[in-house]
Specification:
The protein is mainly alpha-helical. Helices cover about 90% and strands about 0% of the residues. The longest helix has about 160 residues.
Length: about 350
Amino acid sequence: MAPAESNVDYYAVLEISNLATIEVVTKSYRRLAKIRHPDKNLDDDSTALFQLLQNAYDTISDPAKRRAYNLRWSSIRDSLQAQQESEKRQAEAAQTEKKRAAEAKAKEQRGDVARQERLRDLGLAKSRYETDIFELSRGTRKLAADLKHLQDQDDEDLRKEKERNGWWAYLASPINGKVNETDEQKQERETKRLHRLASKSIKGSELGEKEARLRRLQDSLQDVNGKIAAEKNKAEIEKKKLEDEARARKSKMEQEARNRAMQEMSERMAKDRKERAERAAKEAREAQAAREAQEAKERTQMAAATERRRREAEERVKIMRAVEEAARKAKKTDWSKLANKSSGQR
């Protein structure tokens, strides 16, 4: 037979009260044995459950074992109840944490969706700004190149004008012959100069506007890049915050579980000490009562023996008196016979 389990409520296993009679115990055992027998129950733990039922019946059906088990049954029952309450609290805490985690996850997902939308919008804005900046940069480079070309033409015309009016041209004119510029040529050159001047003015104004717009676009792009970096940094901060909060909650739950376990252990130890003290006091009272009963029994026996001896003494006295009385009577009879004999002889 397997040894009895040290922390099992056999009454709960048998589904009976701790005050149940042996008939109720046997009836409940037979009913449960039919249900839990391995031949009729194909569960993996059916053999272990049936063995537990058998151990419970062997203990509760035996009066001596039941008395010994009842001495610690209340402690077992309270310990199991405390364990069940602890498991219930842990399950409730786990369910609450699971629900809170689901809500936090849903909130985080909503935040991620909103953040992704913002990042997508910012990415589109960044792409537009970069495209506009690229086009404007190309336009400003072209305008700058055009202005430089116009300025180079002005510089070239100015250099030629200086050469025509310079001392070297004056001294070389008798040798080569001075070439006079016609009015049409002067008019054409002036028209070109004025045309370049107008182009420079228009292109310069356009370049200034594009450069100003380019600076605004670059500022806007920098602002968008800052917002993108802020969103990503915010996401990292929120993620770290959630991780820190999760670790803190886990640590708090573990600490609370440890505190509850310590408190329950202290309560069980205090209760065990109290029960041991009560059992010791009960045993001492029972021992005292047994001693007093034994002493009373011995006193009763002594009194009975004294009374018996007294009665025996009285009986002996009566017997002795009866013997003495019989002896006196016999002696008196003998004296009477002797007297009668003597008188007859005379």
